[in-house]
Amino acid sequence: MQQPGRKAAADLQVVRLTAADRPQPPEFLTEWQQGLWRQVTATKPADWFTDDTLPLLEAYCEAALTHRNVSAAMRTYTPEQLADENIAKAYGNLGQQQARAAGVLAQLSIKMRLSQSSRYGARGASGAHDRTLKTAKPWET
Q1: Distance (Å, whole) CA 103 – CA 61
Q2: Cβ-based neighbour number of residue 25 at 10 Å
Q3: Burial class (CB in 10 A: 0-12, 13-18, 19+), 40
């Protein structure tokens, strides 16, 4: 039961959460994935990720590495190499893998409310955009 009267100063102090309160990346993730995990968790309040959402964050980090690796493999091809039909087919397969990984990233970021689209309502995104416009419109100059 709450005591009547003024509250003690100690009772009014705000408890600051530290990085230690954030979920730590699993050991089995690669160093790059662990860095991504820390970047993502640092952008949200410490209690944003609960035990039931950590598997989504794991999958997000794994899909991000897959996308990164496939993109790197695609950059190794030259236009001259792509003239060969077999190489072009392999390149196309990489493109499909890249698109799938990007789709998984997009879905997971929406589910965990990491993406911009999940932060705004129908009018919210354009309203936020309008508030950031500080320059004169072309017809006003």
Answers
A1: 13
A2: 21
A3: buried
Residue 118: alpha-carbon gap to chain centroid: 11
DSSP tally for the chain: helices H, then strands E: 5, 0
Q: pLDDT digit string (tens) for 60-83?
A: 999 999 999 999 999 999 999 999
Dig out the tokens for 80 from the structure: 């001259």
Residue type, 22: R
Q: What does the pLDDT average to over 8-36? A: 79
Among residues 96, 24, 100, the alpha carbon closest in space to that of 64 is found at: 100
Sequence-ordered list of residues with C-beta below 8 angstroms from that of 34, at least 6 positions apart, any chain: 25, 61
pLDDT at 65: 97
Count of residues in the chain: 141
One DSSP character per residue, 3-20 reads PSSPPPHHHHPPPPP-GG
